[in-house]
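Continuing the series of single-chain predictions for the mutant panel. This is the parent chain; the variants come on the following pages.
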Amino acid sequence: MLSLKGITKKYYVGDTEVEALRGIDINFRESEFVAILGQSGCGKTTLLNIIGGLDRYTSGDLEINGISTKKYKDKDWDRYRNHSIGFVFQSYNLIPHQTVLANVELALTISGVSKTERRRRATEALKRVGLGDQIKKKPNQMSGGQVQRVAIARALVNDPDILLADEPTGALDTETSVAVMEILKEVAKDKLVIMVTHNPDLAEKYATRTVRLLDGKIISDSQPFIPTEKDKTVAAERSAAEKKKGKRQMSFATATALSFNNLKTKKGRTILTSFAGSIGIIGIALIMAVSSGFKNYINTVQADTLSSYPLSITRESVDLSSMMASMMSGKSPSGEHPLDKIYSRDVLVEMMKTMSSGTRTSELSSFKKYLDSGESGIESYINGIQYGYGVTPKIYFKDSSGKLVRVSPGTVMENLYGSAYASMSAKSAQYSGMNSSIVWTEILDNRDFVKSQYDVLAGEWPESDDFTKLVFVVDKNNEVSDFVLYSLGLRDQSEIDDMKVKIMEHKPIESEQTTYTYDEILGLEYKLILDTDLWAYDENTNTWLDKREDSDHLKSTVENGKTLTVACIVRPTQNASATSISGSVGYSSSLTKYIINSINNSDIVKAQFSDKNTDIFTGLPFETGEKKKLTMEDVNAYILTLPEAEQAQMKAYIASMDEESVLKLFEEKLSAKTSAATYDGNLEKLGVKDIENPEVINIYPVDFEAKDNVKDVISAYNDKVKAAGENEKVISYSDYVGILLSSVTKIINTITYVLIAFVAISLVVSSIMIGIITYISVLERTKEIGILRSIGASKKDVSRVFNAETFIIGLISGAMGIGITLLILLPVNLILNSLTGIVSIAALPPVGAAILIALSILLTVIAGLFPAKIASKKDPVIALRTE
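Parent structure:
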C-alpha cells in the first residue's frame, strides 16, 4: 500500500524557486490501474519520480506499506526501487549495447539472483510480452513497439509491487499503443500500475482510476481510496516480508560485462586508448627485459666464475687475499709525505710480512661435520661443496699397440722435461696433481648445475654415484688439446721424443689435425688401480715388497683393475663463460671415495694400522727418538750368546779395559736397529686418507650475493667454536673472486631504476589521459547511469561499472604492452647478439610481465576513481533526460 501525505517538491532555477508539487495527498490500492492526467508541466512526471524513489520530496511523507520514508537513506531507496518498483519510460531507456535478454536480466542481476534463475525469469517475462523469440537482438534491431514491450518485461521481471509508466505510448502508433495498454491492463489485475499520460481517451478506456493534476495539485480523483484497518494490517505484513529480502549488490562481473559491451561499441577508441596506456608499459617492460636478461647473464657468469673460483678452505694457507688487497690498494704503508722527492713503497716487504704472519691452519673435520649436519643452512646459497683429499687416481690405458700408458698421474710432462720433472713429481704430490688436474677433474655432485653448463653431444650423463663412468669434455669448438690427447693415450707419446729431436736439430715440426668420431671416444676404457696394489706380502720376511717397478706385476694389476668407461661427451653451452669441469675428463666424487675406502680397507694398510710401531716394509721398529743406556749386564749377556771359544777370547780381550771403554766398544754392535721411515710417512706412501678430514673444502656459491651469505655461515661457525672455547677449530678461507670482481649487478640495478623512473612519467601521463577518457565515457553514458539507478543500482554500483571499465582498459593496455614488448624483443635480441655475441639476452620474466599488467590495471583504476565518483553522484532524474 502506497500513501502520499502532504508531498511538496521545490526546484531552484538560479535564484528562482519553482514549486512542482503542492501538498499531494493520495492513497493507492495494492492492485489498480491509475492514470494521472494533466497538462505538460503540471507535475505528473515529478510525482511519478517521487513515487519511484528517483526524486526526493521537499516536505510531507511517502509511506510504503505504512512505513515512513522520511529517514530513508540512499541504500533504502535503492532497495525500494529494485524490489518494489518497475519503470516503463516513454523513451524506453534500454541500454543499447546490451541484448534484449541482458537488458531484462539487469534488474535481477542487481538483486543478486543466480545466472540460471535470472535467465529463466527474464525469458518468461519476454514471452509474457510476446518477445520470447527476440532475446538475442539488440534494441536498435527492433521496432518501437517491441522495444517498449522489452521495457515492460524489464519492469516486470523482478516481480515489483508497483509499475510506473511515464507516457508509455507517447512514441508509438495507435495499433502498437493499444497492444502496450492491453499488457499494462493485464498487469494491473494483481499489481499497482500508475501511468502518467496526457491522453484522456486511453485513461478512460484502460484505467480503473483517473487522477487529474493542475499546477502541482490534485484537482480530481475518480476512485479515491481510504485504507481500512485491514488494509493497514496487510500492508504491515507486506512490509515485514520486504525486510526479509536480502541486500542487493551488483557484482563486479556484471559491472565488467556492462563496461566490456560498451567498450566493444567503441572499438577504435578503446584500442587507441589502450595503446596510449601501453606505451609506458612497453618502455618499462623493455628496460626490465634487457636489465633482467643482463642480470640473468651476469648471474650465470657469476655462477660459472664461482664454479671455477670457489671459496677455498685449506688446512694450511697463506692469506693471499690480504696480500693481493695490499698490492692492489695503492696506498703507501709509510703514510702521506710531501711530493718533493721520490719515495720507496714497501710492496714486497709488506707482502713478505703478510706471508710470514698470514700462514693459517684450519681444522676441517669439525667444519665438514657442521656442514654435513644441515645445521648451517648453507644449502640454499650454494651450487655444491667439494671435499678434496689430495687423491690423484692411478689410471692406465692400453693403447692400440697393446702398450700400457699411465694417464693419471700423466707422463707427458716427464717426457717433455725429463728426469728433473719426474724427480719433482716424485718428491711433491703437488706437481703430479697439477699435471693430472689439467686432464682429470672431479665433477661437482650437483649434477643439475653441472648439466646447465654443458650440452650433451653423445651418450648420457652418468649418475653421480656411478664411479665407473667418465665424462669427456671438449671446448666450444669441439676441440681438445694435443696435450690432452697425449695424456689420455690417444696419441703416441713417442711422437714427443721425435719432436724434441727435431727441435735439437732445428728441423721444422709438422702438425696434423686428427679427428675422432663420437663413437670412437664413447666407450673408451681405462683401468683404475690403487697405490696399495703395487705392494706384495712376503711370508718369509713378514714384510711388504715394493712391486712398483715390476712390469709383470703392474701388467697383472692393471688387467685386474676397475674399468672406467667414457659414458658421454659434452661441450660447454654457448653462453657459459666458465665451467666447473676444468679438465677434459670428469669423474664423480664417488670415485674418490671408492679409492679412499678401498685403500683404507686393504690388507697392507690394515697391517700397518695394527702395528703402529713397526715398519711393514722393513720389519724394523720405527725410531722412537729414545736410546736405551747400555750396561755391563747387557755386554755380559751378549758374550754368553757367543760360542765358548769366542767367549774366552772376548773375556780375555776386555779384561784389561775399564768399564767405559768396554761399553763404548759394544755400543754400536748392541744398539737396536730401527727403520728410517715413520708411521705417518708409510700411510702417506700408501695413499691413506681420512674421509672425515679433508685437506681442502671448496664451496661454490650460487652468485656473489650468496657468497656473502656463505661468508656469514663461516663467521657463524667461527663464533660458535670460539664461544665453546675451541679456538683451534676456527677456520679461514681465501676469496680471490671477491677481490677481482665488483658487484656489477648493483650498477645495472641503479641504471635500471633511473631509466624506469623516466619511463614511468609516460605511464603516469597515459593514466591521466585514461582518466580523462573515462570522464568522457561518463558523459556519454549518463543516460545509462539513470537507467541503472531507476532499476535499483546504488551509487556504488554505478561507480563499480566505471571502475570495471578502467579495469578492462588497464588490462588491455598491460596485455598489449607486454605483447608488443615481446615482439620488439625479437629484433632487440638480434641486435644485442650481433653486438655482444650473447644469444637471447633480453628476456622479460613472467613475474615481471604479470606485475606490469597489474601495475597498468592499478594506475588506470586509480585514474578512473574520480570520474567514477562523479558518475555515482549524478541525479538519476536528470540522467534519464539526457540524450
